[in-house]
Amino acid sequence: MDNNNLFDSEDITGSFDTDDIEKNKALSAIGYIPVLFLVPLLVAPQSRYAKFHANQGLILTIASFVLGIAQAVLCAIFGIMPFFREFVPVIIQAVVSVAILAYMVIGIIYAVQGRAKRLPIIGGMLNIIH
C-alpha cells in the first residue's frame, strides 16, 4: 500500500479461496449496510471472505455512530449561533450522510466484485472479526 494515498488500500483478494469469494459475494455486500455486518457472520460463519467484509462493515457501523454523535454536537453548537443556525447544520448533515453513503457504496462494490480491499482511511482501524 502506498502511504501517500490514503484512498487506496492494499488488495488482499489473493489470500482468499476463490470458491469462498464466489459463494459469499452477495452476502458480504449486505454487511456494509450499518448494523447488518452481523448477517454475513450468522449466515456464513466459516467464510473468511464474509468475515473480512463483516469486519469492514463493523468499522463502518462504528464510524457512522461516531460521525452521528459529532454531527449532533456540531449542529447543536452552530444551532445556537444566529448567523450559522440556518445553513451550517444542514451542510454538516449533508457531508456526514454523503460520506457514510460513499463508504457503503465502495464496500458493496468491493464485495460484489470479489475483491478484499479495506475501506479507504478507516478500513485498517480495527480487526475484531477473524
What does this structure look like?
There is one protein chain. Helix 1 packs parallel to helix 3, helix 1 (18-30) runs antiparallel to helix 4 (88-112) and helix 3 (48-79) runs antiparallel to helix 4 (88-112). The chain has helices spanning 18-30, 38-43, 48-79, 88-112. The mean pLDDT is 89. The chain is elongated, with a radius of gyration of 17 Å. It is mainly α. The chain contains 4 helices and no strands. It starts with 17 loop residues before the first helix and ends in an 18-residue tail after the last helix. The longest helix has 32 residues, at 48-79. It has one domain (13-112).
Helix-residue proportion = 55-70%
Rounded average pLDDT = 89
Give start-end ranges of low-pLDDT stretches: none
Structural class: mainly alpha
Q: Could you give a short account of the major beta sheet?
A: none
Helical segment tally?
4
Order of helices and strands: HHHH
Domain module tally: 1
User: How big a fraction of the residues is strand?
Assistant: under 5%
Determine Rg (CA atoms, Å): 17 Å
Could you give the count of β-strands? 0
